[in-house]
Amino acid sequence: MWQSKTVRTSLALVVLAIACLALADLQISAHDPWAELGRLMRGLIHPDFTAVDFLGTAVVRTLAFAFVGVGAGAAAGLLLALLFQHRAVRTTCAFVRAIHELFWALIFLQFFGLHPLAGVLAIAIPYAGIFAKVYAEILDESDPQPSKVIPHGSGMVSALLYTRFSQALPHLVTYTAYRLECGLRSSAVLGFVGMPTLGFYLESSFAQGHYTTVGALLLLFYGLIGTLRLWVRPRLLPLYLLAAPFLLGDGLPIRWQSVSRFFTEDIVPEPLRQGDGVAGLVPWLGNLLVDEALPGIWNTLLLTQIALVATGLLALMLYPLVSQHFTGRHASGRVRGALGHGVLVVLRSTPEYLLAFILLQLWGPSMLPAVVALAIHNGGIIGHLVGQRSNAIALRADAPHGIERYAFELTPRLYGPFLALLFYRWEIIMRETAILGILGIATLGFHVDSAIQEIRFDRAMILILITALLNIGVDILARRLRNRLRLRHTASCEP
């Protein structure tokens, strides 16, 4: 019964994606995309590391925003996790994490300007919602038995520390380390909206055709992510957290009157500002819905469905790269496994926004760069997790090899966890799909960015609210599908 439901659900998703392909704009419109790709590859092979001050500043600011933003988000998330049983807390956390970091950055930039606080809050607020949910799940999975045997009269804090928290600590540390990697990606991408991180210098270097500098920036970024476990040690972490706030830079001073005006005037719908009341508000909302919201929702859903299935197919192709059942345990197998691990590190470490930006420069404006970017990043993450899970499966001595081992021994056993991971990433893929509109793809992010550029913050805030509600709806659908198919996965299993 479980298998038949799983097969039907998978086929339905594939058929829906094929139907979406017929409606999507996936053409390559660049004059000579292969020549552009060749120049980028030459830049990666011959990077220019001579601009030491330029590159050093980019790396330091990227690290600083990541550490401060993730640190603040983790602290707030832990406090919220202790209150996560309250509906108001769960609803608030679901809302703030449904809005992408770049949307938060665009909001804060309107009244804080190019101040480091805008970048820090853009990371910290959605991460607080994510941390709260995952920390709560990890704490709930701890064994309740120790809490029943502690001495009577022990305080709530002591009981928490010596029972649930002590059991969950390894999982909390592992997940927080993974989120720091995500924070580095988020910090780099903030450069595309003006923050002085790697993305800012990458965009300007690309615009000027300096591919050797682009290559240097990309290699530095991959180096940071790939060596994260080597230089982020528990003993050094307090030092990083203390130093990071002083490395953010000063930026422009905050004009507090702009903050006040934003909340009291700018985001108030135009008909209400002009005194037209509800009579003017209804047609204003109707025009916004027809002209911008509905087309944005349609394209967001279209692109998300194609990217979801493409992610799943790519993950199923990639997981053997890190599975010992295919690489082997001998010296040559360990080399192949290390190479496969390196490939997946590069794929999952490249932010979707960054990769989509590069592909748009190479292929021209269409949905294709977004689909490929989303599939590569998320397929790399899921492929890594499924490959690691396959290593825990014991095969009999006479198990087949090659394609038969893949098709008949391992994939059927891994398909349930794989599908759970895919559904878990569904809402994340939609968040990224919406934000890719800032690059010119006609998703909801395109209309949000256009409204902000036109200084129509009231329209932008409503479109961001619609984006958040859409993400929450997809998250609820994915959770119900996981429950219906009896697929169990929590975010604590992330790398």
List the helices and strands and how they pair.
Blueprint: H1 2-23, H2 33-45, H3 52-81, H4 87-97, H5 101-112, H6 116-140, H7 145-149, H8 156-189, H9 198-207, H10 211-226, H11 228-231, H12 237-243, H13 256-266, H14 270-273, H15 277-318, H16 324-327, H17 331-349, H18 352-363, H19 368-390, H20 402-435, H21 444-453, H22 457-484
Helix pairs in contact: 1-15, 2-10, 3-6, 3-8, 3-9, 4-6, 5-6, 6-8, 9-10, 15-19, 15-20, 15-21, 15-22, 17-19, 18-19, 19-20, 20-22, 21-22
What does this protein structure show overall?
This protein is mainly alpha-helical. It is built from 22 helices and no strands. The chain folds into 2 domains: 1-30 and 269-495, MetI-like fold (Orthogonal Bundle), CATH 1.10.3720.10; 33-266, MetI-like fold (Orthogonal Bundle). Helix 3 crosses helix 6 and helix 19 crosses helix 20 (402-435). The two termini are 31 Å apart.
Low-confidence stretches: none
**Biggest beta-sheet profile:** none
SSE string, helices as H and strands as E: HHHHHHHHHHHHHHHHHHHHHH
Shape: globular
Number of spatially distinct domains: 2
Output the CATH topology of the largest domain: MetI-like fold
Helix content: over 70%
The rounded distance between the terminal residues' Cα atoms is 31 Å
Number of helices: 22
Quickly give the structural class.
mainly alpha
* CATH level 1 class label of the largest domain: Mainly Alpha
Q: Compute the gyration radius: what is it? A: 23 Å
Oligomer: single chain
Strand content: under 5%
Number of DSSP strand runs: 0
CATH structural architecture of the largest domain: Orthogonal Bundle
Mean pLDDT: 86
Fourth CATH level, the homologous superfamily of the largest domain: MetI-like
